[in-house]
């Protein structure tokens, strides 16, 4: 059972013995490290080996790309995110991750460890010690140097056979046919010169669309000969890849070289609009950017996939060296940070509208570069970092990135101490993260300070948001009347000054939750319906999902189980649309209770088991407002009565072994048990 592995092409040349060896090692060893020079194909070999080894086995694969990380601060969070663990706990991050993976039968791939060796060594040691069913597969230019580490050295391709075949196929893709015997002989010489390193061969093939093979040979030989005469240190294979990258760089058009340098500022995969926004300017006008980017793709300097454009780290490092040489490194870092601050502003502006869900997905995709922008701003523009972290905080909290919220918001608050709208917003965002981690006292302090700062400036929206946070704390602590009073107070103060705003919708949601908890079901039903309809009218999803949740809960209390099912399905569809694991867990608990009330015992237990798995992904047992405890207790009593203890326990175990995403899909589409 594969999970988040990148796609692979069917074309994979050679490596049969390495694949067999690696596949066997993955079944036997706790830690396997692929080592080799940059560009030799470690990541590609790891990807194919994991696909081959797990294709017919009930294991998961977790692929973690470490190359976007500049340091180890987000290492654990990056691994947790790839593993589907949206950590909502207050425990140490590594301990929480190890507990989550403790019983997981999976291969965890740590791709590109060489720049984080010490931290990866520490992480791998804890994982191997605490997760007996987990296999850690690392790719690195150097060993992790750990006891029990099984090393597999990835050698270059054989220069007389597989290397020539790789060059021939890549040349064919570039529009050059190497069928002539003379061309085949020339290709063989090139493969020997480049020592069979795949990245070098792909870079060479990328130039065959514009140059003949003989021209490539002559220019490359001149470069290799010059390098041989110089005092270049390091193993010959390191020199070969450096030389080829430098040679490829020299053959690029000036605009391509400039774009290569500017693209090195990105940490992750980016789309064409982002490339234009950050890298355009000067000689790189709009059409020049697109032409240069197409040229770099054709020359294998940049790869293009479904998610956008990216560079291999070896090529990106060379580009960054040239960015320093151009004197643009600082200005490009600032442009990069400004662009992603603008993205955060746009996402916040569009939160209450039809683009809300797309912004959640965009922020998720841009995560490495958002962190890079925050790192830059913290070092050079603390005020911008404070604004940006506050704007991103709620998005990140909903996506389970509570560690990043805590780290960046707190660092920004410490770096910029002046009061203002950004500081109030940042405190509020940090308070939301604290609530989701169950730290109610700390969240209350942040809510109060956020409200005080907003009140001092007569910031109506800031006061509404603070009231939502305070109301949420009281709801979770079983004090709905106080929560409703706080929401009502700010809604009355706001009057008609914020008719459709994030804070107003949130306070209306607090009212609905409070009314339901107080037993005022008819009023709660009416207001929840109005809120749901208002959200649908403007295309909003987050509030809509929780309004549907309340409508489902109210219908269950009123014994209208068909209505309850429909509302619960809408709630789960909304949370799935946003990628909110916490909300999905909450919705599955409620759906299970509704199914039990309808007499669908097997289906109810299946939903309950999937919900428990989702609760595990946030590191908490079942949570929610206090009235859900009675609902859950009734669920277990009813389903045990319907199925009997043995069938209940077996059904729960069976559900726990299944993919929760698949169960959710089946429940939403009516194809699950008894569906």
TrEMBL record:
Signal peptide feature range: none
Family matches, as InterPro entries: HTH_77, P-loop_NTPase
Pfam families from the UniProt entry: HTH_77
Domain Winged helix-turn-helix: 256-322
The protein's name in its UniProt record: Regulator
